[in-house]
Fold this protein.
Amino acid sequence: MHIPRRSRALVGRKLMEIRRYLPLLFLVIAAPSRAGGIVAGAQVVISLGYGSRDLTLLHQLEDELDDAARAANCGELDGDEIAPDGRSASIYMTSGDGD
């Protein structure tokens, strides 16, 4: 499938924005708070406008998220859901068990 260069660039910019917030995501998942932190096994959902049927960049982001969460011992990738037209996607992560 051919993806226009402009579409790939737009998707790439969106994914770069998400990567910028990864430290905050892991802080929310792993760090205790006044409310006691996220319960072990809780699910975090990252919803985004994706805009492409080419899932290569999305899967690269998922791999990065999974690697970073496992390295920080604060969770793992649990799956994804993509609209048939590629306009939106959700990435599901599960918080770690705290061990």
The beta strands are 43-49, 75-82, 88-95. Residues 5-20 form the longest helix (16 residues). The chain has a mean pLDDT of 74. Residues 26 and 69 are 7 Å apart (CA to CA).
